[in-house]
Design brief:
Chain A is mostly helical. In chain A, about 80% of the residues lie in helices and about 0% in strands. Chain A is built from 11 helices and no strands. The chains are: A mainly alpha, B mainly alpha.
Chain lengths: ~250, ~150
């Protein structure tokens, strides 16, 4: 572990004193406080603290790159994606979780478009926000008892609620601290040859020449999943009918 | 932003999304919210792939994201059907209801502090009674859906 950290070529002591480390710490503490719990006040404080942490992260990155228009747009979209994700994970009511998840998806789709992957952005929006979230709300309507349930407000208890944010955020913090040194070794690249424009056509040509078998496999998989989902629900209905008959 | 800075920023956001999804999966107990957390993790991975695809001028990353979307759609169909079936059996979306499936020798999970149920404020409008009570039509009761 120590050898790995030394070999990464990062000055860890300087990193620990930097505002970025403080931002990650704030984010972890905020998430620990804001995960579902019985006290609403602590949850609100947690949201505030994690928002401050995210703000410091975005701000320090903006200071490094300079506040150009594209950087400001990027961090605005990233804020939508990340804030939506945090809210989707921490909200007590499952309906709010689904709606915040859809909000986060808007940010992710916009980020993909921002990067010249227009088709993927639209596909994400259609498949996730259009289909998956609606299906999810439908299932929620059928299955969820009304109001905030006890298990949504409790989650697993204090130990997982504390340890899992600490470990996950710690992992991401360390990996992103290594990033600048690792990226510096990569050869510098220019912008893509044809930004925007016919990117969808190029993707389509690439998809249907190089990866034709993959496309066919994905189609078969979708068909199999469709049949499987119908079989599962039908089976459930039959067995319940039998129990009631007995 | 230069390409390097853009890649760095995208990797940062993708990593954050994966971490948040992982936290949600490990902490939440609602089956549907756990499912949502998995989807958040997939979003983070997709962002990473798109960023690398742009950096290397290689469309393979975008094709991989398309495959991820297809698999996620399959997963949503089957996963939500399973959740619906499980929820019909025990009438709740709680994962703890299925803790009989845990490893042998592991003590069961018991909630330490159970919060009091918040009584929702129900201010229904009151209407004065008017007219006569309609006769119960037993034949109609037989075929009318109770949903």
């Amino acid at each position: 572990m120590t050898e790995c950290m030394l070999a990464s070529g990062v000055d860890w002591q300087a990193w620990l004193r930097s505002p970025v480390a403080a931002a990650w710490l704030l984010l972890a503490v905020g998430l620990i406080c804001s995960l579902p719990r019985t006290s609403r006040f602590r949850q609100r404080v947690g949201w505030l603290v994690s928002a401050v942490g995210l703000g410091i992260l975005a701000g320090s990155s903006l200071r490094q790159t300079g506040a150009s228009t594209s950087a400001v747009i990027f961090w605005g979209l990233a804020a939508i994606a990340v804030v939506g994700a945090v809210a989707a994970v921490t909200m007590t009511s499952a309906v709010y979780c689904a709606i915040w998840f859809a909000f986060s998806l808007l940010g992710v789709a916009a980020l993909m478009c921002f990067q010249g992957a227009e088709f993927l952005g639209v596909a994400t929006l259609v498949v996730y926000a259009g289909a998956i979230v609606v299906t999810l709300l439908f299932v929620l309507m059928l299955a969820q008892p009304r109001g905030d349930t006890v298990y949504d407000r409790l989650s697993w208890g204090n130990f997982p609620r504390t340890v899992s944010p600490a470990i996950s955020i710690g992992m991401v913090a360390m990996l992103t601290a290594i990033l600048p040194a690792a990226l510096a070794e990569l050869p510098a690249r220019g912008a893509p040859a044809t930004p925007g424009g016919d990117s969808v056509a190029r993707l389509g040509a690439f998809l249907f020449t190089r990866h034709l078998i993959g496309v066919e496999l994905a189609g078969t998989l979708l068909l199999a999943a469709l049949v499987g989902a119908v079989a599962i629900t039908m089976h459930g209905r039959y067995s319940i009918g039998r129990e009631e008959a007995e | 932003m230069s390409e390097q800075e853009l890649l760095h920023a995208y990797l940062l956001v993708g990593g954050l999304l994966v971490a948040i999804g992982m936290i949600g999966f490990m902490v939440r107990r609602n089956l549907l919210v756990m499912f949502l957390s998995i989807e958040i993790m997939l979003q983070g991975v997709s962002l990473n792939l798109v960023a690398w695809s742009r950096f290397h001028h290689d469309l393979g990353g975008q094709v991989l994201v398309l495959m991820i979307i297809a698999v996620a759609a399959c997963e949503a169909g089957i996963g939500l059907a399973l959740v619906l079936m499980l929820a019909r059996r025990v009438r709740s979306l709680d994962v703890v209801a299925w803790q009989d499936l845990r490893e042998s020798g592991v003590p069961p999970h018991v909630d330490r502090q159970i919060p009091e149920a918040e009584s929702p404020v129900e201010a229904w409008p009151r209407l004065p009674q008017a007219g006569v009570l309609p006769e119960a039509n037993e034949e109609e009761e037989l075929y009318r859906s109770r949903v």
